[in-house]
Amino acid sequence: MSRAPRASGYFRSDYREDLALVGTRLERNALGAALAVLLLFPSGASVFQLDLACQFFLAAIGALSLMLLTGYCGQISLGHAGLLAAGAYTAGVLSKEIGAPAWMTLPAATAVGALLGLLFGLPSLRLRGLYLAVSTLALHFVVVYLGSEYETRRGFSTGIVIDPPKFFGHALTHPVAWYFVLLVAAAATLLICLNLLRGRTGRAWGAIRTHETVAAALGVNVARYKLTAFVISSAITALAGALAAYYRGFVSGEAFSLFLSIQYVAMIIIGGMGSLAGALLGAGFVTMFPYAIEAGLAALPGAQRYAGLLFAVNYAAFGVVMIAFLMFEPAGLIGLWRRAQSYFLLWPFKQRPVGGGG
Amino acid sequence: MQLYVNIVVLASIYALIACGYVLIYRVSRVLNLAHGELMMLGAYLLLATASLFAGNPALALAAALVLSLTVGALVYVLLMRRMTGEIVLAAVLATVALGIFLRGLVVLVWSAQQQYPAPALGFVNAALALPGGARISVAAAALVIATALVYGGLFAFLQFGRWGVRLRAAGQNPLLAAQRGINLHAVYALAWALSTFTGALAGMLIALDSGLDATMTVIGLKAFPAALVGGLDSLVGALAGALIIAAAEVLLIQHVDPLLSDVVPFLVLILMLAWRPWGLFGTREELDRV
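Above: the input entities. Below: the structure tokens describing the complete assembly.
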């Protein structure tokens, strides 16, 4: 993942510096500050804020993995909720049927996700664009059907209840503990994505996204790297699904509707295609959105009257926001940020700086 | 016998909805994933006009149909026109977003409860006896007839109508069509209007038959495999696809598992994508264009 040169100039002199994740002192300091904030956050946060942060981490893992697939490799998937469901059901079924502990179910969910990724990815060898999106959509319905079929057959018609995971004899129930577990999971996902993208795999994906035929001519094994993208993305997604199942303590087919898939697609659109930071921003935006709507409605006069309509307002507003981003800022939040950056780079003097920033 | 009647009724539902997907895809290569929601909106519009023109069901139906034509054209003018030139994914996602918006809007305006437009129109959904001991409700019979009429009308219109020829031309090659003086925006708006019209007609008749709530969008989505199995750019294909999907669904529900209902169309879709992604009657070159 080569990065754009800074406004101050391009001072890297060998490949190692170019590949370094943290290059400059500013980046080091920013990373340190972010880590400090993330580590200190639980000490000052309420239970509600902790829950919000945990939801954000879970969404971020899913959004990052979808960003790998769609934003970097260019393979459209509308079946993300199906993969989350697969992970959640794997964890649920294993812990229900054979009482498997979390250290078994989580890798199992990841393996199931990888296998399903192979299955979801096979159509991509033949289909492109819309047809691929449609095939992933169809697979989503199949996975969710299999899950609910299991629920009905076994008599868990209202959903499967999962006990909290146990590590070294301690049940993971405390919100702060969950916060750190999910923080580590999300940070690990981010690191995996960064590492994949700055290596051979990421470059191959970029080539495939830009032009498949040219990528093949450059010696990229298109089929293999497409499948790799699907497998890695699905494995991470299924793991996120399993973690979410443990976090909520509950698995139900109802939760994995088509709307969930769309929410994940919305995350990467609203965040900004082709940017990991965009995936994080989008995940934050979509996670906070319903709470923002709720708070906004509560502030209106006659709040009681709207209480029952909350989910409808939520839907309508979400649609409007998605349309607004597609129409007016297709580059997403990260595009807004970059535009602000380049604006202030030139402000107040409207010349381009030497070194070509922005 | 009843089984065949069920298949034919379900096939006409899918066919009537699927022709909306086909019209828009054929003319503008956009997959309209808001079709189910637009269809539901049409049914709710009938609910609104039914209370407005109480005692005059024909007028209410006509007004609702005209409104849905307008809604379709407006969707193009206000939303989809802005998406020209963007990547296909953006256009499809815009329809997805529109669908989410409409779902929220419908609940805000008409509440989430199950509604029945039939009593407001003074329509009694009696059961007709068919030869062979099968039964069919009046609304379902109307649905079959409406599907036949719509398909007949669409074939004639696309084959002989001045605007129908323009629609086909724009679908074949937009650049050449524009060079020949065809107003592409008008053609696309017409395609959206017609598609919404047929979808809304299906929605209204389904609502008359079995009531109306937000789950109607599921039927809209299940009709999409019918369009794709037949070939996304072929009306004949949509008919054939609807018949295949409906037969598979009715038979599998009957003989295997009722829970399969929601998933059968998508299973058929996956099989079709693996075997012939361009569908039974679709054009093969389509695949490379998307």
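Note for the figure: The longest helix of chain B spans residues 2-28.
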